[in-house]
Amino acid sequence: MTNTQPYISIRHLQKGYKIGGEAISIFDGLDLDIPNGDFVAIMGPSGSGKSTLLNMLAGIDRPDAGELRIGNSYLNQMGEGARASWRAHNMGIVFQFYNLLPMLNAAENVELPLLLKPLSAKDRRDRVRKVLDLVGLSGRERQYPSMMSGGQQQRVGIARAIVSDPGLLLCDEPTGDLDRKSADDVLQMLRFLNQELGKTIIMVTHDPEAAKYAKRVLHLDKGNFVEEKRAA
Ligand SMILES: Nc1ncnc2c1ncn2[C@@H]1O[C@H](COP(=O)(O)OP(=O)(O)OP(=O)(O)O)[C@@H](O)[C@H]1O
Asked: What's the family (predicted)?
């Protein structure tokens, strides 16, 4: 990747599914550029392909054809194992329902991605403490998910997503299960990670209020993106 290239580039991407022997096309020639440091909200009707796109960006699923590059990595050319390893090192994912393990406390949940790395127990502890502090949860290291509010659980989810210091955060309806106040707190946190730490964020959301926190809003419809025009 050169400095003039966008961080994420999607070219002529095709993706479809076979349902009951019938082929349905979700994307047929999708193009998209996302520069480094962007914060993009992706909106669109149910079934328009938002999760399908997020799964391809996460390397969980693969395009049928076309190019999907993130940084210097061409995900469309990589096998499943290479994509899984790439994912572990390059991105964090924030889920709607947090996906915390109930039998692990907050610190242990956040530590999970670090177990794949050659770090000492002390280094892992230090990193976990630092990110829990960053999301405003210091002092709650030993609390279990069942003892936390939805907003606090999502903060643990965000801490887990950033503990490996990835450049890219993919967020799938990160506030879909939260009340307005908790949602705004989480969105402020994402904005901080974008503006102060330079994380590139792609967030799928149905909530127009959540989308306001992003720098750009893209509406997905019939396999293409339309960018929302905003007052300067
Ligand atoms: N694994 C799969 N096998 C077959 N069809 C699939 C699969 N995953 C998604 N689809 C179909 O692809 C289309 C897009 O689904 P997708 O989940 O990406 O939409 P979405 O925009 O995320 O919807 P929602 O807002 O409801 O989450 C839908 O018609 C869905 O039924």
From this structure: Belongs to the ABC transporter superfamily. Macrolide exporter (TC 3.A.1.122) family.
Q: Is 205 in the pocket of ligand 1 (CB under 6 A)?
A: no
17 lines ligand 1 (CB under 6 A): yes
Tens of pLDDT, residues 155-198 = 999 999 999 999 999 999 999 999 999 999 999 999 999 999 99
CATH number reported for the structural domain that contains residue 198 in this entry: 3.40.50.300
What pTM, to 2 d.p., does this model score? Answer: 0.94
**Inside any domain, residue 39:** yes
Structural domain tally of the chain? 1
Average pLDDT, whole number, for the chain?
94
Q: Domain span at residue 105?
A: 8-17+24-227
- Cα(214) to centroid(ligand 1), Å: 24
Decide whether any atom of ligand 1 lies within 6 Å of the 46 Cβ. yes
| CA 52 to centroid of ligand 1, rounded, Å | 6
3 found inside a domain:
no
Ligand 1 atom nearest residue 53's Cα:
18
ipTM score assigned to the predicted complex = 0.95
